[in-house]
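Justification of resources, computational component.

The compute hours requested in this renewal are based largely on the per-chain cost of generating structure records like the one below. Each record pairs the submitted sequence with a full structure-token output. That output is archived, and it is also reused by downstream analysis tasks.
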Amino acid sequence: QVQFVESGGGLVHPGGSLRLSCAASGWIATYVMHWFRQAPGKEREFVAAISWHGGNADYADSVKGRFTISRDNAKNTVYLQMDSLKPEDTAVYYCNVVILYNAYWGQGTQVTVSS
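The structure output for this chain reads:
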């Protein structure tokens, strides 16, 4: 059983930055970790993923070059650095792990990009 607590969301102007954190209560050090997001009226979509050792990362085309995923396995925490934010990045952001075919999700953190 894994539980997550996401934090770091908020209201930011276009072009601004935020750093999201996802702290896990269970063991995640050997698993690929993901960030997803869900905007109002839209389906949840993939944002970024990071390998268990942190050496490989993958991003949605819409955030490539602006977002950076990282992890600190000693702290059981995954991060999402978001730069050059756009209004279309407004969404609830969730971290996720799949362990033995079971998907675990956090409660989400709201990110609002608006002038």
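Residues 26 and 75 are 11 Å apart (CA to CA). The chain has a mean pLDDT of 95.
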